[in-house]
Design brief:
Layout: H1 4-13, E1 16-19, H2 42-56, E2 61-65, H3 74-83, E3 87-92, H4 111-131, E4 135-139, E5 143-144, H5 152-169, E6 175-179, E7 189-190, H6 195-205, E8 209-214, H7 224-233, E9 237-242, H8 259-271, E10 280-283, H9 292-312, H10 315-323, H11 327-338, H12 343-352, H13 359-366, H14 368-375
Parallel strand pairs: 1-2, 1-10, 2-3, 3-4, 4-6, 6-8, 8-9, 9-10
Antiparallel strand pairs: 5-7
Helix pairs in contact: 1-9, 2-9, 2-13, 4-5, 7-8, 8-9, 9-13, 10-11
The structure holds D-allose and zinc ion (ZN) (2 copies).
Residues 181, 214, 216-217, 249, 284 line the site of one zinc ion.
């Protein structure tokens, strides 16, 4: 078992990126249940994100979404974040909510639509220049609903053309993270449906193009940790969009549906030296019925717990059991770590960092929940599309 001191050291350097949109209202196609105190601006989202970092100590980065976080001065927004101990993270493009994108964005059969979509992606890189962000996150809703609707290969050609143009625009220290999703909102084909498609495009583009694994973007039963291990081995794992799913892309709190799967994913990250690399550990969640800030804090804690358990795997004993073809022994080594209650260890890590050992309780005691309800009356609440 890895000595807790090494585990503690690794846990104190972990950084989990929270998404601006998780602080705003969200819902399903059936209903958005608006909540009191929800941010009305990107600045108020950062105020809420600062509470998550204040109580967890490991969430200093906030991903933005354009146009949901559009402001006149992105450098000023970066300063606003910095004044709160935060920095702006990935810039998430949005080529899925404009009426023009009904038949696709960069993959659309209409060249004018493709030009419009590419223009937005290039604008996002301009914003990265202003915010100092390293990563551009690209998720395409592009796809088709019926066989014959469009040509699968031609859409890949259009995608490659747009990705190449974006890649050529990137600065030296910037990356593009291509996210795949097996279905939704398109139902017959999705133009970036799986890790293989994303990997193939990123391989052609070059080292600044990497793959994002959204844990909710796989068919039921997919072995996600295998994908993680392979992409990490190939130097193409740009990051995660962490969330939980029961049936589809449910965007629930990460670790809430299958903590064992999250542990297996984090074990492959640890085993592949991914903790200390450039892998971005982002959340991509929506808290439709639960209070948002505590749900995000819980998600951060779940990632920490999975990471701590992964770090506790006795790698020497595991390697020895594997080399000896000791199937049950090797499995037992992994399960020993997964079955270890790491909450006391994490409480120690937090106390040694000057934090409350229980971030959720600390948040509830802080009074922030009531304060934002009192302060944020009136005005247009932030949410998907707002
Ligand atoms: C959509 O399903 C993808 O997970 C996206 O990463 C994300 O939800 C969207 O880009 C919002 O920023
Ligand atoms: Zn995602
Ligand atoms: Zn998603």
């Amino acid at each position: 078992m890895t000595a807790p001191s090494a585990v503690k050291a690794a846990l104190t350097t972990q950084s989990i990126e929270t998404p601006s949109w998780a602080y705003g209202n969200s819902g399903t196609r059936f209903k958005v249940f608006a909540q009191q105190g929800v941010p009305r601006s990107p600045q108020e989202k950062l105020d809420d994100a600062a509470q998550v970092h204040r109580h967890t100590g490991v969430a200093p980065v906030v991903a933005l979404h354009i146009p949901w976080d559009r402001v006149d001065d992105y450098a000023a927004l970066a300063d606003y974040a910095k004044e709160r101990g935060l920095r702006l993270g990935a810039i998430n493009s949005n080529v899925f909510q404009d009426d023009d994108y009904k038949l696709g964005s960069v993959c659309s059969p209409d060249p004018a639509v493709r030009r419009k979509a590419l223009g937005h992606l290039l604008e996002c890189v301009d914003i990265m220049d202003a915010t100092g962000s390293r990563d551009l996150k690209l998720w395409f809703a592009d796809g088709t609903n019926y066989p014959g609707q469009d040509d699968i290969r031609s859409r890949q050609d259009r995608l490659a053309e747009a990705l190449t143009a974006v890649y050529e625009r990137l600065g030296e220290d910037q990356r593009m993270l291509l996210e795949y999703k097996f279905f939704e909102p398109a139902f017959y084909t999705t133009d970036v449906p799986d890790w293989g498609t994303a990997y193939a495009h990123c391989l052609k583009l070059g080292p600044k193009a990497q793959v994002v694994v959204d844990t909710g973007h796989h068919a039921p039963g997919t072995n996600i940790e295998f994908i993680v291990a392979l992409l990490l081995r190939e130097g193409k794992l740009g990051g995660f969009d962490f969330n939980s799913r029961f049936y589809a892309d449910d965007d629930l709190m990460v670790g809430a549906a299958d903590p064992f799967q999250l542990f297996r994913i984090m074990y492959e990250v640890v085993r592949g030296e991914g903790l200390s690399s450039e892998v971005a550990f982002m959340l991509d969640q929506c808290h439709n019925i639960e209070p948002k800030i505590p749900a995000i804090i819980r998600s951060v804690m779940n990632v920490q717990e999975a990471t701590a358990k992964a770090l506790l795997v006795d790698r020497d004993a595991l390697a020895a059991a594997q080399a000896a073809c000791d199937v049950l022994g090797a499995n037992a080594v992994l399960m020993d770590a997964f079955n270890t209650d790491v909450r006391p260890l994490l409480a120690d890590v937090r106390e040694e960092a000057g934090l409350d050992p229980d971030p959720i309780a600390a948040y509830h005691r802080s009074g922030w929940a009531q304060r934002i309800i009192d302060d944020r009356k009136g005005g247009q609440q932030a949410g998907w599309g707002a």
